[in-house]
Amino acid sequence: MKKHPHIFIVDDNRVVTEMLKFHFTEHNDWKVTVFNDGFEMLKHLNQEPDIVVLDYHLNDTKRGLDGNFYLKRTKRFATIVLSGQRNIETAVNLLKQGAFDYIVKDENVLFKLEKSIQKILQTKEKVKDIHHHKGQIQKDMLGLFAFLVLLCSFIYLTF
């Protein structure tokens, strides 16, 4: 895992983005990039953020785009969707489409968002450990296979 995880925060409400950026840079060692326009965020996905925090109701009516459109383009990254609505159908639909989490913007949003981000970072660390151990097991198996080939050759040549 990177020493300083990079998080994109995408919300058309500048108060929300600045509050989240301030909180996460002051209380954690995270790099935070803020976008107030989803289309602008898409132009920067080549930066490979670790996490994308995406407002479901981006005010992007001139393009006719919503959170579903942006989720489809960010789901290769761990994406958390924020919304002001408590619609369970929307939440389930977004989770089925690949969102890591769906968080309602309420008085506990900072706590819930930070908890979700921590869970993502822990999961990424565990996946990294699994890949490391998998590689070590493959090396060990290759060594064991080579040993068995030598042992069989020795037994064959001895008898």
Characterise this structure.
- The protein has 159 residues and is α/β, with parallel strands linked by helices.
- It has a single domain (6-127), classed as Rossmann fold (3-Layer(aba) Sandwich).
- The chain is 54% helix and 16% strand.
- The protein has helices at 14-27, 38-42, 67-74, 88-96, 109-158; strands at 6-10, 31-35, 51-55, 78-83, 101-104.
- A 5-stranded parallel β-sheet has the order 2-1-3-4-5, with helices on both faces.
- Helix 1 (14-27) links the parallel strand 1 and strand 2 (31-35).
- It is elongated.
- The N and C termini lie far apart (53 Å).
Topology:
Blueprint: E1 6-10, H1 14-27, E2 31-35, H2 38-42, E3 51-55, H3 67-74, E4 78-83, H4 88-96, E5 101-104, H5 109-158
Parallel strand pairs: 1-2, 1-3, 3-4, 4-5
List keywords for this structure.
alpha/beta, five-stranded parallel sheet, 5 strands
- Please tell me the CATH architecture by its name: 3-Layer(aba) Sandwich
* pLDDT averaged over residues: 87
Task: Give me the CATH fold name.
Answer: Rossmann fold
Read across the widest sheet, the strand sequence of neighbours is 2-1-3-4-5
- Span between N and C termini? 53 Å
**How would a crystallographer describe the biggest sheet?**
5 strands, parallel
The portion of residues forming beta strands comes to 15-25%
| Count, helices | 5
Which regions are unreliable across 5 or more consecutive residues at pLDDT < 50?
Answer: none
What is the percent of helical residues? 40-55%
Structural class: alpha/beta
Shape: elongated
How many separate domains make up the residues?
A: 1
What is the CATH superfamily label? Response regulator
CATH C-level label: Alpha Beta
Order of helices and strands: EHEHEHEHEH
